[in-house]
Specification:
It is a single chain. By secondary structure, the protein is of the alpha+beta class. A hairpin with a 6-residue loop joins strand 4 and strand 5. The protein has four helices and six strands; from the N terminus they run E-H-H-H-H-E-E-E-E-E.
Length: 152
């Protein structure tokens, strides 16, 4: 399998990944372990919340997005890590039974000023459900090795 380097990431649409099916059981399990709020754990309490029904944690959705990114391309990228997330927005609830698709765009790709053997690629990820509703958007840079000799 070819390893993706900085030079493989051009500004614009990079790809679409999925689908990823989300079950009620995994929503409950994630919430019980990491975000035990009533709207993520209890059908009746969730119905009375502003979400009007059981919904997955935003952190669960972010974790699913990360898994889809790694399975989609980061797992075969010469990634050296990330300095963080620039922005993450939860726009609509994750529901049991959702089938998710992830659209990934390269928002920016630039050579590092301090480490010219690397580049910084900023990705924008957008997760939609099968109805096309955007559930989450995230923008995050990763540090990626350049091809051997590219910095010379």
């Amino acid at each position: 399998m070819t390893t993706l380097t900085f030079e493989d990431f051009k500004t614009g649409r990079f790809g679409t990944f999925g689908p990823r099916h989300v079950t009620r059981e995994e929503i409950l399990a994630f919430a019980a372990e990491y975000d035990p709020q009533p709207m993520h754990l209890d059908e009746e309490a969730a119905q009375k919340s502003m979400l009007k029904g059981l919904s997955g944690s935003g952190w669960h959705l972010g974790s699913i997005m990360m898994r889809m990114l790694v399975d989609g391309f980061i797992g075969r990228t010469a990634s050296l890590g990330s300095p963080g997330v620039n922005e993450m927005r939860w726009l609509a609830p994750l529901r049991p039974g959702d089938d998710l698709m992830l659209d990934v765009d390269v928002a920016e790709a630039r050579i590092s000023r301090s480490r010219p053997e690397t580049g910084i690629v900023t990705f924008k990820g957008t997760i939609r459900n099968a109805a096309g509703v955007v559930l989450c958007e995230m923008e995050s840079p990763i540090i990626v090795s350049r091809r051997t000799g590219a910095a010379e």
